[in-house]
Model the fold of this input.
Amino acid sequence: MIIILKSDIDEVQIKHLLEHIESVGLQPHLSRGTYRTIIGLIGDETEISADRLRSFPGVQDVVPVLPPYKLASLQAHPQPSVVDVSGVLIGGGHLGMIAGPCAVESEDRMNTIAASVKQSGANLLRGGAYKPRSSPYSFQGLGEEGLKILRRVGDRHGLPVVTEITDPRNLDQVLQYTDMLQVGARNMQNFVLLSEVGRTSTPVLLKRGMSATIDDLLMSAEYILAKGNSQVVLCERGVKGFDNATRNLFDVAAVASVRHLSHLPIIVDPSHATGRPELIPACALAGLAAGADGVHIEVHDCPEEAMSDGPQALLPDQYAELAGQMSQLAKLLGKTISQVGNAAGDPA
Ligand code: PEP
Ligand code: MN
Done:
């Protein structure tokens, strides 16, 4: 951390600042230049608050040298992390292919969709049982009944399952049925929820909030890591834009950016990012090309009957075609798509 001092700071103020720095166990290095005096801090930056330093008289600015997300940063862990979702690997060259309907609606429907996406090459099945809806009058999900259906169908087809947790009060229940917890965009900064999922050892899919910066996303991941759960996969699902041509603005650069900042795997969700089936294939492939560790796609066999997000669902045939393209691209990129029971991954 570097502290830049105001040109009119006096010696008493400098002394006061140096004493504070030493009192928290850091070593200050004062450097007096012709125009500016700065103090470099040596030691663990997390021991001191940048905002506290900024409020000292005579301080112009404080420039942290390390990112505030200590555990999520590449410095903390220079090798890419690999997250193991009940045998399906994500990260470090392994792609997670998450597919399924927005919400679990019925066992028959779930079964039909799971059979088709599995056949196409998906390795994880998704479906929401607790749905965070903008309107309290919209379908809210089947709750525990939905979790039971998802579990049975996942087991039947050899697909580990991913479902959203919206409320820490449901955590024990959801954990009984799922292989991976999804924290949705609307809850990315629900710090109580993040801390609670951080206390578990179940892998977490953490979606980027619609107005969250990349730093915000990594700080939210830090909440989970700080509680001891290292199994975190990030998800770029689009941010609020100014153009209604797409549901959100797909930020493919976020994928490449995260690669430079963090060891955590990151996948893309072109379904929520674009909201338009005809744009999903291009954005899924762009995400993989940008270095994503997987793709999350909503698939429904009868979108007009879907209880949520029908307009953005791919039909099973459309998913099959895209999955074939993703598998070819994976091969080109030297990545593998692991399936349960084959954790090392088949060459794609
Ligand atoms: C979902 O995955 O169905 C969902 C609600 O996603 P998001 O949190 O990204 O909006
Ligand atoms: Mn959805």
In short: The pocket of manganese (II) ion (ligand 2) is lined by residues 102, 272, 298, 308-309 (CB under 6 Å). Confidence is low (pLDDT under 50) at residues 343-348. The longest strand covers residues 27-32.
